[in-house]
Specification:
The chain is an alpha/beta fold. It is built from 30 helices and 24 strands. Strand 21 and strand 22 form a beta hairpin. The chain is elongated and about 100 Å long.
């Protein structure tokens, strides 16, 4: 600049005439268009290394070359770290497939024949190099500098870039060797399984089974790094705390890494599982690749609640991009006020009901304990697996809380109260809203740990043979669901409820069987309404904070024998702090209501229909089910479901039971031989 020259700080771009892309072509500064730089009439092959790329610009600039090989760090638009972004590219199989399927058939054909390649680092290491190699029959060109393969860099979009261009220069061979060196550490962006189907039948990107098979093949072929360092896993954790729009995707990546690897205790790194073990994880991988469908999103009224693994506290979504800390300390006065409201609500199940018993009250309190643990239940399950070293123990921590009751038992009021206690101001869901295909499955496969609360689940749901309902669904999610996920809290009708032993062992069934007195309906409705208008999430927020502190300080936060043990302890502490007596309905242990119901039913059948039970000398009992009025196969299955499985010796065409187990089950003592001969049993 000459001494008399001045810079106008307020000049327009045209007035200032800045050259953003500074091209030095064979030693001469030159204004060049992208078409001139990437001249497909002079060069037939293009090779590229770039940190980022914008897809539209890439395909515009490369479509006329005969052969194209490109290596990218991350796609333009990622703001997470390069390691995280690389993993996102691997896991986002549906997005990769969708991108390729949208390309012209001419490019798809070239991809199939390896004439058009897009690759990225298989070690998930960042690639910051910018190298462009062009060659034809006679000429070569090498371009290096700061410019990424993006429209922003090459079209004067107010971004200063440097580009050195050299034609037929010895540097071409040097950078060709460098390209080959980087290329050898990369993998194909297009899944091999998909490449084989190009121009044929399209892969359904909504089908998680197809996506799972593609991902497994990529893991087997080495596209996944064999080992992930502690620093890389920490980057994933940090990326998961970014805005909500990224949180879901990064969380999905993190959970898949945890599924397909194991922790090496010597190095502290995570290493890839052997193929045989990986095959056993197919269902878990499938669950993490599932995406919430649009119909499910429309009916899911839950506020998004995020479990932060760094401090084990809950964060709640206030808008699309903002999360606020939900786990908070309550004042002694707030704790006492909310605790008294809980007392008031539970007491109504004795004051206004037909029977004077605290049995139902205890079940309502038990449901409150489960609901307060709900957002941490996934953590209980994962921790239990780690402690035991066996994935099979996950099934011992149920994901389903079922409140079963007759009409006017107050089960729906209880559900509404539970919903308000955890701060969900939106109404609970009705079963009709989520009964369509795969909707319940979708709700489980999200990282929103707020429980799914559903009223009046059809009793047929629990015996359905459909893949997305009944035994298959309950076994699938209870056995295989890993990482963050919600629980399912629902009501159903007691009268028609039944379930197989496989289902019963995987749900927490609480029977609410004390009906409200219709003559006291006005008073009970007023009290319940007043109580629910005052209750809020203050106590739940304090509870989750106390629970998080136990986890942070490596203290007990559940017991394998009673996953609600610590919840009981915290509520006992609340009563002590507030100088309140422990109420008679304070439950000290879990209940086994379905088993108790079965005992009652079979004991009554045995006492009332002794002729139907043939007690034999070989310590078996032959049951004439037709005498019990169970003539059809369906009727026999219904009643058999209430028996302990270990008591059944045969139940195909006849029912034969183990005498000792059955008698112990119903609480009857076998008769002596003398009396058996007299009464014929």
């Amino acid at each position: 600049m000459q001494p008399d020259e001045q810079i106008n700080l307020f000049a327009t771009d045209e007035e200032q005439a800045a050259r953003y892309l500074h091209v030095v072509h064979n030693g001469v500064v030159k204004d060049s268009t992208p078409k001139e730089l990437f001249d497909a009439t002079r060069f037939s092959r293009l090779r590229v290394v770039s940190f980022v790329a914008s897809p539209k610009f890439v395909f515009t600039m490369t479509k006329e070359f005969d052969e194209v090989h490109m290596v990218f760090g991350i796609e333009d638009g990622h703001v997470a770290g390069a390691f995280t972004a690389g993993l996102q590219s691997i896991v986002a199989i549906d997005e990769r497939i969708q991108l390729v399927q949208s390309l012209p058939e001419t490019i798809q054909e070239r991809i199939k024949t390896e004439k058009y390649q897009i690759r990225y680092s298989k070690r998930n290491d960042p690639i910051h190099s910018k190298i462009y190699l062009l060659d034809g029959k006679e000429d070569t060109r090498v371009m290096i500098g700061s410019a990424n393969f993006t429209e922003q860099a090459f079209t004067e979009r107010k971004q200063y870039e440097e580009l050195i261009v050299m034609d037929n220069n010895p540097l071409f061979d040097i950078y060709q060797s460098r390209f080959n060196e980087i290329y050898s550490e990369t993998v194909d962006f297009v899944p091999e399984a998909f490449k084989r189907t190009l121009l044929g039948e399209k892969i359904n990107i909504a089908d998680s089974e197809q996506l799972t098979e593609v991902l497994k093949e990529e893991i087997y072929s080495g596209k996944f790094a064999a080992e992930f360092t502690q620093a890389q896993m920490e980057e994933l954790n940090e990326a998961a705390q970014k805005t909500h729009s990224q949180k879901e995707t990064v969380e999905q990546v993190k959970q898949i890494i945890e599924i397909v690897t194991r922790l090496d205790k010597k190095t502290g790194n995570r290493i890839l599982l052997p193929k045989a073990q990986l095959e056993k994880k197919t269902q878990s991988i499938k669950s993490k690749l599932s995406r919430l469908n649009k119909k499910t999103e429309e009916v899911d009224t839950r506020v998004f609640v995020e479990y932060n693994e760094s401090n084990h506290m809950l964060y709640k979504k206030s808008d699309e991009e903002t999360m606020f800390l939900f786990s908070n300390r309550a004042t002694p006065e707030e704790i006492k006020n909310q605790l008294l409201l809980i007392h008031q609500f539970i007491d109504a199940y004795n004051t206004f009901t037909i029977q004077s018993s605290n049995k139902t009250q205890m079940r309502i309190f038990e449901a409150i304990l489960y609901t307060f643990m709900s957002s941490h239940m996934w953590k209980v399950r994962d921790h239990f697996v780690q402690e035991e070293g066996r994935g099979s123990v996950r099934r011992n921590i149920p994901l389903f809380l079922v409140l079963a009751g007759r009409t006017s038992s107050g089960k729906t009021s209880a559900l509404e109260f539970l919903n308000l206690l955890i701060g969900n101001s939106n109404s609970y869901l009705s079963y009709e809203q989520i009964s369509k295909k795969n909707m319940i499955v979708d709700l489980f496969y999200t990282s929103n740990v707020s429980p799914v609360v559903v009223d009046e689940v059809d009793s047929k749901f629990f015996t359905s043979t459909a893949a997305d309902k009944g035994e298959r669904l309950i076994k699938d999610v209870t056995n295989n669901l890993e990482g963050k996920h919600p629980v399912f809290i629902c009501t159903t009708n007691t009268t028609n409820f039944e379930a197989t032993a496989q289902v019963v062992s995987r749900i927490y069934y609480l029977q609410i069987d004390n009906t409200f007195d219709k003559q006291k309906q006005a008073a009970s409705s007023k009290l319940l309404g007043d109580t629910m208008s005052k209750v809020n999430s203050t106590l739940y927020q304090d509870f989750t904070l106390r629970l998080s502190e136990r986890i942070q300080y490596d203290e007990e936060f559940y017991s394998p024998d009673d996953y609600l043990k610590v919840a009981r302890e915290i509520f006992r502490d609340y009563h002590t702090e507030c100088n309140l007596e422990i109420p008679k309905w304070f439950s000290e242990h879990r209940f086994d209501d379905y088993n108790e119901r079965g005992k009652k039913i079979w004991r009554e059948l045995f006492i009332s229909n002794r002729d139907a039970f043939d007690v034999r000398n070989d310590n078996t009992i032959y049951v004439r089910t037709e005498v019990l009025g169970k003539k059809t196969k369906r009727e026999r299955e219904e009643i058999n479901n209430y028996l302990p499985t270990e008591s059944i010796l045969e139940d195909n065409t006849v029912l034969i039971l183990d005498k000792k187990i059955f008698m112990d089950f119903i609480g009857e003592k076998p008769l002596s031989g003398f009396w058996r001969r007299w009464v014929g049993r």
